[in-house]
Amino acid sequence: MAIFPLINMEKLNGDERATTMEMIHDACENWGFFELVNHGISHELLDKVETMTKNHYKKCMEQRFKEMVAAKELEGVKVEVNDIDWESTFFLRHLPTSNVSEVPDLEDEYRELMKEFADKLEKLAEELLDLLCENLGLEKGYLKKAFYGSKGPNFGTKVSNYPPCPTPDLIKGLRAHTDAGGIILLFQDDKVSGLQLLKDDEWIDVPPMRHSIVINLGDQIEVITNGKYKSVMHRVIAQTDGTRMSIASFYNPGNDAVIYPAQALLEKEPMEKEQSYPKFVFDDYMKLYAGLKFQAKEPRFEAMKAVEANVGLGPVATA
Question: Which residues on adjacent β-strands are paired with residue 258?
């Protein structure tokens, strides 16, 4: 069985840079996922984020989740449940404007910690986008500029906990989907597993690893690279023991960013392979995605092609 791609970012600074870049390229082409170590975010910060996130769940969200389970009669289901996920979540928005100070029930120290964590992840996301540009032969900053729109990118965090589930064969922690956006950075529990990706028609575990950041590519990267790099179906399997923590941060295009395949990549394609991906405004894609998240991505791309004639070039990035 293929080994899940593990990238040591420290090796980008030495003799092994070329090999490490090739590993990232291969992961983007063939997995849509990879796991980063030595990524520059301190272990102390990660440990603090984990401790405070788990404490917040216990204090503010665990009882609410139990009440939701009781209200929806999910405790003793006998048939598969396909319209709900076994997860407890809240969302933080960082860019273009932050709502971290407005989210209820968060202690001030936790708010400040999550702001600091988001700043580090934003820088890491932009560093990774430039590594992707380098591997693709695009000019440095191309992907960041493509995401920019008129107000900069969207960047937000979904904080999830997946409590023990009595019937994991009947309820998913999170149903299978591809992510709609750009690049996703995940800090996940290193003791309780559950995240899986679909590769070659098999579900493969994304290995929990202490202090790592898991990266996966969203639909917009697939469009901009004209399918060279692909977003991949993934899901979370609920577990019978232990609560799994998941902090996923999404670096996405701005709402009015116009997304389309990079011309420099199209020019490298053979003549018979025409542009196969549409051109659209990111917000229009998100409106469509909202109702079709747990379905295949290809019909979404086809639906965007149908309205493509109405899409202009959009705002030009000024940063």
Answer: 281
Dihedral angle over CA of 2, 223, 287, 215, nearest 10: 40
d(CA 216, CA 129): 12
pLDDT in tens, the chain (319 residues): 679 999 999 999 999 999 999 999 999 999 999 999 999 999 999 999 999 999 999 999 999 999 999 999 898 789 999 999 999 999 999 999 999 999 999 999 999 999 999 999 999 999 999 999 999 999 999 999 999 999 999 999 999 999 999 999 999 999 999 999 999 999 999 999 999 999 999 999 999 999 999 999 999 999 999 999 999 999 999 999 999 999 999 999 999 999 999 999 998 876 555 668 999 999 999 999 999 999 999 999 999 998 876 776 554 443 3
Determine whether 28 is exposed, middle or buried from the number of CB atoms within 10 Å of its CB (0-12, 13-18, 19+): buried
Residue of 200, 208, 171, 146 whose CA lies nearest to 78: 171
Q: Please give the Cα distance from 136 to 25 (Å, whole number).
A: 8
